[in-house]
Design goal:
Blueprint (H helix, E strand, L loop, with lengths): L4 E13 L4 H6 L6 E13 L3 E5 L6 H8 L7 E6 L2 E2 L9 H6 E4 L13 H11 L5 H14 L16 H13 L5 E5 L7 H18 L2 E6 L2 H7 L2 E6 L2 E7 H6 L4 H8 L39 H5 L5 E3 L2 E3 L2 H5 L9
Parallel strand pairs: 3-8, 3-9, 6-7, 7-8
Antiparallel strand pairs: 1-2, 1-4, 4-5, 9-10, 10-12, 11-12
Helix pairs in contact: 4-5, 4-6, 5-6, 6-7
């Protein structure tokens, strides 16, 4: 695996102005209200690997995904793809960069145009990027349909004539049309039945092997993440609280939030693992807690956790943001 990251995110934030109407705010002398959806996120993705981004709903995972492909503009920080700023995606010269970085959306029922036939849906990226003539585009569509486990005879059907799993295969074919190197996958299996999820995940792993793809895979399902990821980043309230190789994170989670997520996985094998009760809910991002954002739910929280935001520190192959790990009152014996 290459040592040079294909994607590099440095201290990226994305804030949204959710203030009321401008005139009302001026008359009442109310300050602007900012929703800090993502707040100081840093990570890298190397060529050929799968980095999974996990966390509860509302933690900022999808906002990160949309920043990476240029749908949202970062409020601050830097995002680079192969040494180029992602902001270049929106420029006139960014067409080649956009070809190399594509996205698969969560809901296959909402992400496909219901008025278009499958052939037009898949061929649209080729037209946008000015690739191939009509005959070559038709041949490419047939090739992609076969590649994702569908038939060329499906090209003239509409999205409503397919099941959810088949629609997601169409979405994958569309994302692959321009021959990208990097796919941002925003919970691509969460809307599917369990058996169909396995089929789509196996397809994505096969495509990664065959085409040399790199994935950022967003999910809240840790069983799915264990199946696909090389490394895992855990998000909580807009921040990454732990990042580690997959096997290390699952066998020796450091952050109390990571342990809480892992303990919520059903123990179907009957191993008798210790369960940590899932306490509370994710706080309102409009009014986040002081200090460590997880401290209201953390069984090990102390005064410093309520007052000071923890720095992200290296701990072996992992990175973790936790005062308890740094100062030693959260230790390995608490993780067993």
């Amino acid at each position: 695996m290459s040592r040079k990251p294909l994607l590099k995110v440095e201290n990226a934030s994305c804030w949204f102005d959710v203030s009321g109407p401008w005139l009302e705010r001026v008359l009442k002398r109310q300050p602007p209200v900012k929703l800090k959806a993502v707040n100081g996120v840093s990570f890298t993705v190397e060529k050929g690997e799968t980095l999974a981004l996990v966390g509860e709903s509302g933690c900022g995972k999808s906002t990160v995904a949309r920043m990476l492909v240029g749908l949202y503009t970062p409020t601050s920080g830097q995002i680079e793809f192969d040494g180029h700023p992602v902001s270049a995606l929106q420029s006139r010269d960014g067409k080649r960069l956009r070809q190399r970085l594509q996205m698969i959306f969560q809901d296959p029922y909402a992400s496909l145009n219901p008025r278009w036939r499958v052939a037009r849906i898949i061929a649209e990226p080729l037209k946008v990027h000015g690739q191939l003539n009509q005959a070559e585009r038709d041949a490419r569509v047939d090739e992609l349909l076969l590649q994702v486990g569908l038939s060329p005879t499906d090209r003239d059907r509409y999205p409503h004539q397919f099941s959810g799993g088949q629609r997601q295969r169409i979405s994958i074919a569309r994302a692959l049309a321009a021959r990208p190197e990097f796919l941002v996958c925003d919970e691509p299996t969460s809307a599917l039945d369990v058996s169909v999820q396995a089929q789509v995940l196996n397809l994505m792993k096969k495509l990664q092997r065959d085409l040399g793809l790199t994935y950022l895979f967003i999910s809240h399902n840790l069983a799915v993440v264990h199946h696909v990821a090389d490394r895992v980043a855990v998000m909580y309230l807009g921040r990454i609280v732990e990042l580690a190789p997959r096997d290390e994170l699952f066998s020796r989670p450091r952050h109390p939030y990571t342990r809480m997520l892992l303990s919520a996985i059903p123990d179907t094998a009957g191993t008798g693992k210790r369960r940590i009760p899932v306490a509370g809910e994710v706080p309102n991002p409009l009014n986040p807690p002081s200090g460590c954002p997880f401290h209201p739910r953390c069984p090990h929280a102390q005064d410093i956790c309520r007052q000071v935001m923890p720095a992200t520190l290296a701990d072996g192959a992992a990175q973790v943001a936790c005062h308890g790990i740094e100062q030693g009152w959260v230790t390995a014996d608490l993780m067993e």
